[in-house]
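Extended Data, record Efflux transporter periplasmic adaptor subunit
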Amino acid sequence: MKKHLIAAALAGALLTLAGCADESTAPSTQAQHLQPIDVAAVLVKPVQSWHTYTTRLESPQEVALMPRVSGVIERIAFNEGDNVKKGDLLFKLDDRPFAAVVASLDAQINSAQAALEQAKSEAKRAVRLTQRKAISTEQAESRTSVLRQREAQLAALQAQLTAAELDLEFTSIVSPIDGVISRANITKGNNIIAGQSVLTSIVSNEQMYAYFDIDERTWNSAFSNVTAASRQPVVMQKVGQNDFAYKGHINFIDNQINASTGTLRVRAVFDEDNNQLRSGSFARIKLAANSISEQVIVPDRAIGTDLKNRFVLTVGENNVLEYKLVTVGERYGSLRAVTSGLSQGDVIAVNGPARVGPGMPIKPNTVTIDSSDVAFTLSNDESRLVAKQ
């Protein structure tokens, strides 16, 4: 009997010791299984709001090239798609008919000059004879009238010659501007009509314009003090690109609000050095409001969506994640402004709710939010405006 009591007592003691051992090892085991999560303190930065508009690029100068004289194309002197300079020969017409007209007028002018010289001589003689009363006054006036007629005839022929020489010059059709030329619409050997036949088109390529419309409310609240002289900076993105890689400025603001749409027409200009911008291209324009305010900045991936709400996970007491509703603002590269819900000093899960959720204890791995390549305001180095927005 005593042996059984001793055995029972030993068994109870062993169970008690085992229970104590389990209780002592449970917390350490739990700590070993905590999820390691990257966390970071939110940034507070002075920022400007960016406004985005769509547009199509336009060339400052576009020419539909038409001939000034009718004729037959004898030669095409350009390669289609080339850059051309003002004054470069593009088309050459058969100039023989025009040269014949010039030669004929030259001959007529020579004849008119001889007749004029004779009329001058007779007019001078008439003056002398009148003084000696050798001829009547009427005869002297008649010779003077002939002189005036000969002068008028010569002037008329010289004007015709000038017009004929211009027509002869216009048989060489040159580029009126610097730019990029299109294809030849009419080829060698075809007859063209002055002022009607469109030979080709040329667009200037040193600059490109981008017109876009800003609604009246946005203009009054964000850009009311902007003028064309202030050269408000803008950045542009072409379709199919990720970066706003082109920098320009506003150089025209319309003089009135469009009453039908409630918008103001604005134009940005972009210098074109590498022939990468083409007239008619679709593009997106971004420009920053002049007002600057401090806002909380977090990685865009840290923001989760819950039905209609946006939220982030903050690190609370005992490294437990907490659910925080937020209101988001502008995006700046891979970062996002938060206008409400967070404050300076808050620590967040930088990768968002992908692997964790509210109420979950974590093992924090502290990192820093990198904002070195993001422009928050226009006061930053302009080269950083090409960051991905």
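Summary. The first strand starts at residue 35 and ends at 41.
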